[in-house]
Amino acid sequence: MAVEDERRFGEDTGIPWGAKALIVLVAVVTLLAVWLVPSEKEEQPPALPEMAAPPQTDQAIPLPPDEAEGKEILRAGDRARAVIAGLRADNANANPNPEKVFGHAEQLQSENHLDDAYLLYRFAARQGHAQAALFLGSQADPAFYTSEISILPMPDLGQAYKWYRVAADAGNEEAVTRLQSLREQVEQSAAEGDESARRLMLQWR
């Protein structure tokens, strides 16, 4: 009876029973494939919660003050040039009095402004100031040299001779005595093969 019904159903629809069974099987397989195969669209990770923005302040945080603000930045030699310019202005633009220049040099030397003091000593010595020339010779003389009072990196026999000679020619007796002692040092250095000492001996007078 069931077989006759199935045959009758196939005959009523016009589609053989075997073909219907194949269609049903294909439909079932297709549904399984769609269900098992993952979707090509990747899952997006959940969005992170937005961080709260820092609170806005109406007044900016004050920065530390600049230590150099409002202060004059002086380079080596600026003080000496200012002294000479001031003395010239007081003397109708003529060369300043060497004694006054020497006094300023002594003050700057005591304040440890060695570069500025050296320039003023040189200025005064070139104007014939014996004491300034003696001091410059002492800065270069190995017997008196010290880095605490001299801008020279090391003793210099030639510089010592030069300024002692200026001081001696200006009548400074101490410079004459130091020249004698310096000559002994130069002669010894020349005998030991010091070329600079030998050249200095050639110009000694």
Please tag this protein with its features.
205 residues, elongated, 60% helix, mainly alpha
Helix and strand arrangement:
Blueprint: H1 2-13, H2 17-36, H3 78-90, H4 98-110, H5 114-126, H6 130-140, H7 157-169, H8 173-191, H9 195-203
Structural write-up:
60% of the residues lie in helices and 0% in strands. The protein is mainly alpha-helical. Among the domains are: 75-127, no CATH class; 130-205, no CATH class. Helix 3 (78-90) packs antiparallel against helix 4 (98-110) and helix 4 runs antiparallel to helix 5 (114-126). The protein is elongated and about 145 Å long.
Which strand-content bin applies to the residues? under 5%
What is the string of helix and strand elements?
HHHHHHHHH
Structural Rg: 51 Å
Largest sheet: none
Low-confidence stretches: 57-71
Précis, in short:
This protein is mostly helical and 205 residues long.
